[in-house]
Amino acid sequence: MSLPQDQHRPFFPFGNPFRMVLPKGPHLSPWLHELLNTFEETLAERLRKLKPKDREDVLSLSWMRFAMESLCDTHTDIKVLITALELPVSNWDEKWIDVYLDNSVKLLDICIAFSSELSRLNQGHLILQCVLHNLDCHTPKQFVRARASLDGWRQHINSKNPRLENFSSIIDNLTETLNHPKVKTSAKGKVLMRAMYGVKVVTLFVCSIFLAAFSGSAKKLMDFQVLEVCLWAEAFTELQAFVNSGIRNVFSTGSVAVLRELEYVDIIVNKLYPMIQNGVGPVEAEAFQNSISDLGKRSEKLSQGLDVLAKEVDGFFRIVLTGRDALLCNLRVGSNVSDPIAETNNVKDQVVR
Q1: Of 57, 88, 142, 287, which cross-links 137 as Cys (Cβ 3.0–4.6 Å)?
Q2: Domain boundaries in the chain?
Q3: Cβ neighbour number for residue 154 with a 10 Å cutoff
Q4: Where are the transmembrane segments (predicted)?
Q5: How far apart are CA 249 and CA 201, in angstroms?
């Protein structure tokens, strides 16, 4: 499948994955072909379902929850595939194991950063509750407090989360591992490597979307050129083009709040602020009350959306952690691998802080 040297080679941001996905070696049996095709067809269908009907839904918390849920299902599927392959850990190339363990730690770090940011955003709900409480009193003193709370909410939402500072470099490091080290592999190993390639691409795609949403920068988005031989390639390419273009369009409008539910709250806050600052006359009274009511509903919906997404992120964390622990347990049975359980437990404890 190599190209003549005088032709333009396709660009892969992570190197040439052909040697990883299509390594030389034993041909696949019909059973292995069916196993791989079932995995890839399921992944393709999941990607098609993930494509939102409207570009405006891309950065909504409901769609992000669906994306994380889909990612959890994909990682569960790879566990099922590994079990079906009955490929003993003793047969895994040592380089595979090293890369897997390193990648799993990075994914756990990403989950911790996600959870931290979702928790930080949800703390803004308490500030908005203070705003609503003060506005119920209809006194000048309480209006001043409400305005101060709105100022606090704006500062809180626009502040940066230090846990996200190293996020981009972690994703870059994971992207580099798509180009696996060249290893000798069996027919079962070929199936595992190709399936893992799909899992990694989808994982990095979803993580880059979350990074763009949380960092407020479309520069964090990644555009993957994947191998057409994979049965999920077409569905992934269509999804990536639709989602990434939608996100870049959101950023091009100059919106301060990228998350859809957060943007709705910000719009209402911008309506309320001048009313609180300048006072509310008889003409504006009805509009003022409607805005207060809308703020209560929108802030509650935002908080609920953040809670649900946080649960999905925690679920993904546990899937990665249990998969890592299972591999480590198998390694300890047949080797002198040191016990790293304390390390993974420490990571698990951090996710709730």
Answers
A1: 142
A2: 18-329
A3: 17
A4: 191-214
A5: 23
**Would you report the helix, strand and coil content of the chain in percent, each value rounded to 5?**
75, 0, 25
Do residues 44 and 235 touch, judged by C-beta distance below 8 A? Answer: yes
**233 pLDDT higher than 80:** yes
Distance CA 275, CA 307 (A): 31
Say what the pTM is: 0.83
163 falls in which pLDDT band (50, 70, 90)?
Answer: confident
Say yes or no to pLDDT of 2 above 50.
no
- At position 207, the amino acid (one-letter code) is C
The CA–CA distances, whole Å, from 198 to 20, 41, 80, 97 equal: 12, 11, 15, 18
- Please state the φ and ψ torsions of residue 274, each to the nearest 5 degrees: -65, -30
In angstroms, the CA 238 to CA 44 distance is 11
Determine whether 230 is exposed, middle or buried from the number of CB atoms within 10 Å of its CB (0-12, 13-18, 19+).
buried
DSSP 25: S
Across 227-254, average pLDDT: 91
Q: How many CB atoms lie within 10 A of CB 31?
A: 11
pLDDT of residue 125: 92
Q: How far apart are CA 293 and CA 298, in angstroms?
A: 9
